[in-house]
């Protein structure tokens, strides 16, 4: 079987041998009854790591975000969030279908939201013509690969508290953000009332995410998880590698970030490629390819070299580094790109 160099996303990471061993030996129960010891331990450890009262194990990050909307909001309420965030772009309109909420967007500056722009959008009073503002959503690290400064998050959080509006953080890659900011994840989570993060994005767990927040919030979210079909049974076989993702793999992300910066520096040396190495915050490298470069030829060359990559869109391409891609693999990638120039 061919061994591919897969740079499409950090969701493609495979479980480590230690994770596979943990899955084999996991003590399991029925999580819907609350008696799966591995799941219970994972939820306790996740809550402690993020400085929250409780956490809930869910199958995916999208479900975690949608549960937050369903639990914070009532149908017909309004949520303020960035115009380029994951909830708006990549969750298949779930906010409308599941939570029944209206999304009111704010222009994002590389993921940073202007607090004054948010303030102008918060609905105050009891005008029967207007929806209620019941949630503000932030994202860090942003799905564009940028890390949001804590000061920018804090400004929004203070504004929200002043209006009695909770904040939800899509922290799918919160540990990448923490690594970049050189803080613990709890310092980022402190600026939000609820936080979702993924175990399967760069942390090598085969599946699973956590939603964390106040204990009463998580108990309400647990009911909504059941409603969406997310009540898993012997889920300890997934929680066991998740615990290793949380305790071990989240501590090694600097290596992926260094590889991404190294790659960006090499791409900048290729004629016609447009990349700013200083803009690489985490493990994502975005770059422009030459206008003369034929996409079909490019993708064929990468496939021939044993590389899986997403094709460029509007001449912009993304490469994602992770645990399963080393410098040798990135050298192979660079060789394939040189071959088509």
From TrEMBL:
GO biological process: glycine biosynthetic process; L-threonine catabolic process
Any one GO molecular-function label of the UniProt entry: L-allo-threonine aldolase activity
InterPro entries: ArAA_b-elim_lyase/Thr_aldolase (IPR001597), Low_specificity_L-TA-like (IPR023603), PyrdxlP-dep_Trfase (IPR015424), PyrdxlP-dep_Trfase_major (IPR015421), PyrdxlP-dep_Trfase_small (IPR015422)
Positions of the Aromatic amino acid beta-eliminating lyase/threonine aldolase domain: 6-286
A Pfam family matched in the record: Beta_elim_lyase
Gene Ontology terms: cellular component: cytosol
Family: Belongs to the threonine aldolase family.
Subunit annotation: Homotetramer.
Protein name: Threonine aldolase
Source organism of this protein record: Paludibacterium paludis
């Amino acid at each position: 079987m061919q061994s591919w160099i897969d740079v499409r996303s950090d969701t493609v990471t495979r479980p480590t041998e230690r994770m596979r061993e943990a899955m084999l030996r996991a003590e399991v129960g029925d999580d819907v009854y609350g008696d799966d010891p591995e799941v219970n331990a994972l939820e306790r450890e996740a809550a402690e790591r993020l400085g929250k009262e409780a956490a809930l194990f869910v199958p995916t990050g999208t479900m975690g975000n949608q549960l937050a909307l369903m639990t914070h909001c009532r149908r017909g309420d309004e949520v303020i969030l960035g115009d380029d965030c994951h909830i708006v772009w990549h969750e298949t309109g779930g906010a409308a279908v599941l939570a029944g909420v209206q999304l009111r967007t704010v222009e994002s500056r590389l993921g940073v939201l202007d607090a004054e722009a948010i303030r102008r959008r918060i609905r105050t009073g009891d005008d029967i013509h207007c929806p209620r503002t019941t949630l503000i959503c932030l994202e860090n690290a942003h799905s564009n690969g940028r890390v949001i400064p804590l000061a920018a998050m804090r400004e929004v959080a203070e504004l929200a508290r002043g209006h009695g509006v909770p904040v939800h953080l899509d922290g799918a890659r919160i540990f990448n953000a923490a690594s970049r900011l050189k803080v613990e994840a709890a310092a980022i989570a402190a600026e939000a009332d609820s936080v979702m993060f993924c175990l399967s994005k760069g942390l090598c767990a085969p599946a699973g995410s956590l939603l964390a927040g106040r204990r009463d919030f998580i108990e309400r979210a647990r009911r909504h998880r059941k409603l969406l079909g997310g009540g898993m049974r012997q889920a300890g076989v997934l929680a066991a590698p998740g615990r290793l993702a949380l305790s071990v793999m989240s501590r090694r992300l600097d290596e992926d970030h260094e590889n991404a910066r190294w790659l960006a520096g090499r791409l900048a040396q290729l004629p016609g490629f447009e990349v700013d190495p200083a803009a690489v915050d985490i493990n994502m490298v975005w770059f422009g390819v030459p206008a003369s470069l034929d996409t079909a030829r490019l993708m064929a060359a990468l496939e021939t070299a044993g590389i899986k990559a997403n094709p460029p869109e509007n001449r912009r391409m993304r490469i994602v580094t992770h645990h399963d891609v080393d410098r040798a693999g990135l050298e192979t990638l660079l060789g394939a790109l040189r071959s088509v120039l």
